Amino acid sequence: MSSSSPANQVRASHILIKHQGSRRKASWKDPEGRVISNTTRDAAVSQLKALRDDIASGNAKFGEVASRHSDCSSAKRGGDLGPFGRGQMQKPFEDATYSLEIGEISDIVDTDSGVHIIMRTG
């Protein structure tokens, strides 16, 4: 079975918060990167933890939070990244996604892009 077969693929949505250490310090919300350049990793993590708590407590839906707060262009799709296989995402992101059950939300995951929470959807 080749690794590109759908059987080995997962599907996930995520919420990305960028910070000073992010590879690209701009996003659809912050095209000039003013906010991102002034956001420490700790501040990004605190923001993400608060969002995660809102989702976990049922006060907010993952997709709605993603569309408002995620620094990824996937925000307009409620954070949905579609299906992907191994080797397509940054390693920490891939490892976290594959370790989740469907419907489960990860803890904070660090990549070169910023900090994420990931919900496995398939």
UniProtKB/TrEMBL annotation:
<dbReference type="InterPro" id="IPR046357">
    <property type="entry name" value="PPIase_dom_sf"/>
</dbReference>
<feature type="compositionally biased region" description="Basic residues">
    <location>
        <begin position="16"/>
        <end position="26"/>
    </location>
</feature>
<feature type="compositionally biased region" description="Polar residues">
    <location>
        <begin position="1"/>
        <end position="11"/>
    </location>
</feature>
<dbReference type="Pfam" id="PF00639">
    <property type="entry name" value="Rotamase"/>
</dbReference>
<keyword id="KW-0413">Isomerase</keyword>
<feature type="domain" description="PpiC">
    <location>
        <begin position="7"/>
        <end position="122"/>
    </location>
</feature>
<feature type="region of interest" description="Disordered">
    <location>
        <begin position="63"/>
        <end position="90"/>
    </location>
</feature>
<dbReference type="GO" id="GO:0005829">
    <property type="term" value="C:cytosol"/>
</dbReference>
<dbReference type="InterPro" id="IPR000297">
    <property type="entry name" value="PPIase_PpiC"/>
</dbReference>
<dbReference type="GO" id="GO:0005634">
    <property type="term" value="C:nucleus"/>
</dbReference>
<dbReference type="GO" id="GO:0003755">
    <property type="term" value="F:peptidyl-prolyl cis-trans isomerase activity"/>
</dbReference>
<dbReference type="InterPro" id="IPR051370">
    <property type="entry name" value="PPIase_Pin1"/>
</dbReference>
<feature type="region of interest" description="Disordered">
    <location>
        <begin position="1"/>
        <end position="33"/>
    </location>
</feature>
<dbReference type="InterPro" id="IPR023058">
    <property type="entry name" value="PPIase_PpiC_CS"/>
</dbReference>
<keyword id="KW-0697">Rotamase</keyword>
<protein>
    <recommendedName>
        <fullName>Peptidyl-prolyl cis-trans isomerase</fullName>
        <ecNumber>5.2.1.8</ecNumber>
    </recommendedName>
</protein>
<comment type="function">
    <text>Prolyl cis/trans isomerase with specificity for phospho-Ser-Pro bonds.</text>
</comment>
<comment type="similarity">
    <text>Belongs to the PpiC/parvulin rotamase family.</text>
</comment>
